[in-house]
């Protein structure tokens, strides 16, 4: 008994129906996957100017010359990847740590102004980023004067309201009795947080870490605004500059795009479960 | 038993006020400096002719100038057009796909979810690079080849003001809908079987079950995706910036991009701040209206 007819007694009918469904889904999958496929296949082409070339959808040869071209374009190509890795790692660790602490406080510790502060955070979450973009830029560049440093790339993202919200939502479901017990046993708040809250929140924190890392790795505009030398740029900014400097080099551009996306693909395939969980963890009302 | 459990549940750990502040200290400082202060500052800047050394107060000039600027109106229209063409289609696609995935077994469900989600992990810059070549205006361009197969003439996709907006819309249609598909599927799996059983006793068909059970049950999900989709679409500018730069002839200049250009191309910070606040207001009003009209009988 469900939305679909069970076709009880008609096994063949059920198989045919599912086969038709799978074919439709596969066709749609082809359409969504196509840009990625096209990117990877084309990146193995020769690094020649596009001119009158035609694109082939089936790889005719596999050559890594375009990757070499991308890395030789600038002495900083590798540095872009390392910058992205460094910034994303720091941002991820600090988010998991500080957001879980704040989430614990907002869900389980009673202190004055707690509700008011949390409401303030929620309201702030609805403000479009365009509003804060200009003042934030002025703050970093004119007031703190730290443009083109790792601090400028990292500080504004140290802990996001969204992650605090995520942590708070999850931790509210941890029974308070458990924490009471620990307190009676003589744990102070930090021990409760470290020994009970963190282990119990492992899954949600893993989801948070992965999504934060991906966001930070893929972010383009902020690093684009606050960096002005090649050695400080992240891979996304570097890729954009490479694109504008080599408008006709088709295969190397695809190689660059593949390089920027590859770490995320690897992460996705190895931690797929957490990625898919991450979608519903913040969205579906709990 | 229940009487005993209740007061226990309500009781929180007491006398830990100091710990509470200590735990939120870092988060609060980051929030105050990098979110709260910029928001307040945006209001102030929007009334100023901003100069790094000594801004002058200009009252509502930035707002008045914006509303007199035909480009601001054009960018608003572009944003609305883009939103109307992308958000409902995205909802329909994700709903349809989620319905189709539903009868499959768990393993196939996960596989398809992963496939549809995959493009979302690639960065916007990487995808824009790829789409730039798909939209290659030469007859050898991928999209032109596909359409040539159906006998449709060569198009200068991103370079002509008649097709550039459609190109961005097409790109959005074929981008990752994984997130909404997964959310819809989760909601579909949450519908209680007893509804269907009751409907089947009454001899309801697939279409009827769809109309009277599935669609009403998924209303909160649809509302959530609609509101977040519209909010996201009103802020969109990465694709426009990377693919067309807002051109040709400002045919793809969205509000988000206009604000970016005013701020970081022309360095008119005051004007950009004023326009960003107008955008925030518009987004707020639209979200509210959606909740009012759609959310009447939605429970949260």
Automatic annotation (TrEMBL), chain A:
Cross-referenced SUPFAM superfamilies: MetI-like
Coarse class of the protein's main subcellular location: membrane
PANTHER family: ABC TRANSPORTER PERMEASE PROTEIN MG189-RELATED, ABC TRANSPORTER PERMEASE PROTEIN MG189-RELATED-RELATED
Superkingdom to which the source organism belongs: Bacteria
Listed transmembrane segments: 20-40, 80-106, 118-144, 150-171, 192-214, 249-269
Membrane topology, from the record: Multi-pass membrane protein
Places the protein is found: Cell membrane
CDD domains for this protein: TM_PBP2
Keywords carried by this UniProt record: Cell membrane, Membrane, Transmembrane, Transmembrane helix, Transport
PROSITE patterns: ABC_TM1
Ranges of residues in domain ABC transmembrane type-1: 81-271
Homology family: Belongs to the binding-protein-dependent transport system permease family.
Record protein name field: Carbohydrate ABC transporter permease
Top-level taxonomy: Bacteria, Bacillati, Bacillota, Bacilli, Bacillales
UniProtKB/TrEMBL annotation, chain B:
Superkingdom, taxonomy of origin: Bacteria
PROSITE patterns assigned to the protein according to its UniProt record, in alphabetical order: ABC_TM1 (PS50928)
Listed Pfam families: BPD_transp_1
Organism whose genome encodes this protein: Paenibacillus profundus
TM region positions: 21-45, 80-102, 114-134, 165-189, 210-234, 272-294
Family classification: Belongs to the binding-protein-dependent transport system permease family.
Keyword Membrane among UniProt keywords: yes
Membrane-protein topology: Multi-pass membrane protein
Start and end residues of each ABC transmembrane type-1 domain: 76-290
Name recorded for this polypeptide: Sugar ABC transporter permease
InterPro entries in the record: ABC_transporter_permease, MetI-like, MetI-like_sf
Localization in the cell: Cell membrane
Keyword Transmembrane helix annotated: yes
Sorted UniProt keywords: Cell membrane, Membrane, Transmembrane, Transmembrane helix, Transport
């Amino acid at each position: 008994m469900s939305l679909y007819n069970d076709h009880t007694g008609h096994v063949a009918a059920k198989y045919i129906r599912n086969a038709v469904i799978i074919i439709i889904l596969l066709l749609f999958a082809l359409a969504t996957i196509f840009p990625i496929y096209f990117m990877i296949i084309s990146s193995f082409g020769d690094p020649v100017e596009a001119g009158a070339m035609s694109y082939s959808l089936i790889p005719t040869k596999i050559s890594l010359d375009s990757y070499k071209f991308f890395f030789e374009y600038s002495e900083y190509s590798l540095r872009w990847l390392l910058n992205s890795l460094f910034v994303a790692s720091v941002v991820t660790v600090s988010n998991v740590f500080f957001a879980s602490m704040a989430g614990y406080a907002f869900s389980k510790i009673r202190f004055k102004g707690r509700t008011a502060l949390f409401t303030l955070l929620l309201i702030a979450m609805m403000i479009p980023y365009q509003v804060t973009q200009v003042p934030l830029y002025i703050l970093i560049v004119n007031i703190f004067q730290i443009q083109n440093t790792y601090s400028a790339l990292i500080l504004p993202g140290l802990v996001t309201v969204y992650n605090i919200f995520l942590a708070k939502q999850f931790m509210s479901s941890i029974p308070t009795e458990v924490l009471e017990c620990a307190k009676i046993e003589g744990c102070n708040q930090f021990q409760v947080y470290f020994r009970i809250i963190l282990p119990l929140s492992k899954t949600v924190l893993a989801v948070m870490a992965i999504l934060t890392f991906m966001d930070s790795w893929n972010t383009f505009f902020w690093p684009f605004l606050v960096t002005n030398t090649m050695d400080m740029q992240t891979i996304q900014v570097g890729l954009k500059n490479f694109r504008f400097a080599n408008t006709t080099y088709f295969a190397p551009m695809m190689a660059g795009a593949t390089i920027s996306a590859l770490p995320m693909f690897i992460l996705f395939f190895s931690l797929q479960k957490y990625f898919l969980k991450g979608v519903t963890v913040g969205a579906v009302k709990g | 038993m229940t009487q005993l459990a209740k007061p226990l549940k309500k009781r929180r750990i007491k006398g830990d006020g100091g710990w509470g502040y200590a735990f939120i200290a870092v988060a609060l400082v980051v929030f105050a400096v990098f979110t709260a202060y910029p928001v307040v500052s945006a209001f102030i800047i929007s009334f100023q002719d901003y100069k790094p050394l000594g801004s002058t107060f200009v009252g509502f000039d930035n707002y008045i100038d914006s509303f007199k600027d035909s480009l601001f109106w054009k960018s608003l229209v572009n944003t609305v057009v883009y939103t109307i063409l992308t958000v409902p289609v995205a909802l329909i696609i994700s709903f349809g796909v989620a319905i189709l995935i539903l009868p499959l077994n768990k393993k196939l469900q996960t596989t398809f979810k992963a496939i549809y989600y995959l493009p979302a992990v690639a960065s916007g810059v990487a995808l824009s690079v790829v789409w730039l070549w798909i939209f290659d205006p030469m007859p050898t361009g991928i999209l032109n080849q596909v359409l040539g197969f159906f006998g449709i003439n060569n198009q200068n996709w991103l370079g002509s003001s008649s097709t550039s907006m459609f190109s961005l819309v097409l790109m959005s249609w074929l981008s990752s809908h994984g997130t909404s598909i997964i959310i819809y599927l989760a909601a579909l799996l949450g519908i209680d079987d007893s509804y269907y059983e009751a409907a089947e006793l009454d001899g309801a068909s697939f279409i009827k079950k769809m109309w009277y059970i599935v669609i009403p049950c998924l209303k909160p999900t649809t509302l959530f995706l609609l509101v977040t989709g519209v909010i996201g679409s009103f802020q969109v500018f990465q694709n426009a910036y990377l693919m067309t730069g807002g051109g040709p002839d400002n045919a793809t200049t969205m509000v988000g991009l206009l604000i970016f250009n005013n701020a970081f191309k022309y360095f008119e910070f005051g004007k950009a701040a004023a326009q960003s606040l107008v955008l925030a207001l518009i987004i707020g009003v639209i979200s509210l209206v959606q909740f009012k009209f759609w959310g009447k009988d939605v429970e949260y």
